[in-house]
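ok trying this again, last paste got cut off
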Amino acid sequence: MALPLVQRQPPLPWGPDMRSTRDDLLDRYLHLRKISKTLHDDVLRSISADALLSQARRLGLAQGRTFVLDHEDEMYFVYDLAIYTAPADRSRAIDRYARPAPFAPQSDERLMLDAMRASQFAILLIERPHDSAGLIVTDILRNTKVWLLDVGLEASMDEGELIATRLITPGPFSMTAGVNVPFEVEMLEAICAMLPRSIGNRELSRIAEDRRFAEAVYKAGLIGGVMDKMAYIDLTDQA
């Protein structure tokens, strides 16, 4: 599996024509982030302790029935995979939660829930700041441009850096699902070694859709000491 060269893209379908100010965009982002956090918490309450332990063991974060963590924030990787992924013969927790969810069709809660269900795992190349707020990035597995709104990444990532994350797109901009792994090309060897050989023959976009790819990226990040390189900040109190 090799990362593709980034090709020149057509003009972005959003940009200066959007008349929202930076404050407007950040207010909207923080509002949707607060909703997503509430939805994540609700979905997590529907996931059994056994399911979380099973996922933690696959990441090397549990032994038997005991979680083994160097840092409490490592649980976010377990939560992400437990919410958004499932074996082929099982339904995802996010889909089971969505079926009876009582949100009105035009509500922001329904908007975010639908966006969460359609989320995509991606490796992003930081291109440049967006003219209004956030970053212009390239999803290198799908060779597409993305307008990413994330206050923490905007302040901490430099042009040319790579990050692996799960993207939620509730509108013209995308957001992260909350879990990020600073990515280096050198990690590919370890990631490929964790994947079944059959996956390597697929297109990159299809590899990204396989739950085992995100799992391998997270595991490689944890082995490489990802929590020593970043910290999670809860910004929802500012919404």
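PB: full thing came through this time. The chain has nine helices and seven strands.
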